[in-house]
Amino acid sequence: MKFLLVFDFDHTIIDENSDTWIVKCAPDRKLPNELRNSYQPGHWTEYMGRVFVYLGHNGVKEDEMRRTMTTIPFTAGMIDLLGFIGENKELFDCIIVSDSNTVFIDWILKAADFHEVFDEVFTNPASFSSTGYLTVQNFHAHHCAKCPKNLCKRKVLKEFLDKQLERGVSYTQIVYIGDGGNDLCPVMFLKKNDIAMPRQGYTLEKKISQLAQDLSPVQCSVLVWSSATDIMSYLKLLIKK
Fold first, then answer.
1. Cα(238)–Cα(17) distance, rounded to whole angstroms?
2. Host domain of residue 80
3. What is the pLDDT of residues 69-109, one digit of tens each?
4. Longest Cα pair distance anywhere in the chain, in angstroms?
5. 162 is catalytic
6. CATH number, domain with residue 8
7. 179 annotated ligand binder
8. 27 to each of 57, 113, 158, 220, how far by Cα in Å?
């Protein structure tokens, strides 16, 4: 009997957006207007690529980026929650599906000693080039009209579950914890026995409410959280059953 916990990262595990936090490294802690205005909807990863080039041009090095990123606060109660999951790994498989990047998530989890809690991290691949610039690529290609070009979280979740089944692993329940609009697609993939946990006051909660009002509610149960303590309370009930 195992449960699968699926976490988003920005505004879920951490209380900020890692991609906008890195702007603290820029001259005067802001980006020039023409760079900011170059963002096109659905093409965030390409936009962040240009941000990293700008930081590189301005002499921002890996060490400074790492120092800045590891000051991002975790969401309220999240440190306790991740500690609890780490102590109960025989009951929980735990993955991250995020539109951030491998470098940022790796830095943040390792600095707080939480990288062992997660079995896999699915996010945009990033690395430092020979010139010391951070580069980022799209996670994959997909055909989902609802999702940004670089990442369909439903596809990631479905492929992960298929791979686990091949290994003989199936889950009693999937618990999906997120906040953003791009978390709706995987939530709509969840079954009746699963649970979606949208963060209170964020886009995912609003979109799920809108679907219910439109009389096309999601199949899974929905439990809203404002602090990770709410998530921990639910998980404690789950393992008592």
1. 30
2. 2-16+74-124+148-240
3. 999 999 999 999 999 999 999 999 999 999 999 999 999 99
4. 56
5. no
6. 3.40.50.1000
7. yes
8. 11, 30, 42, 46
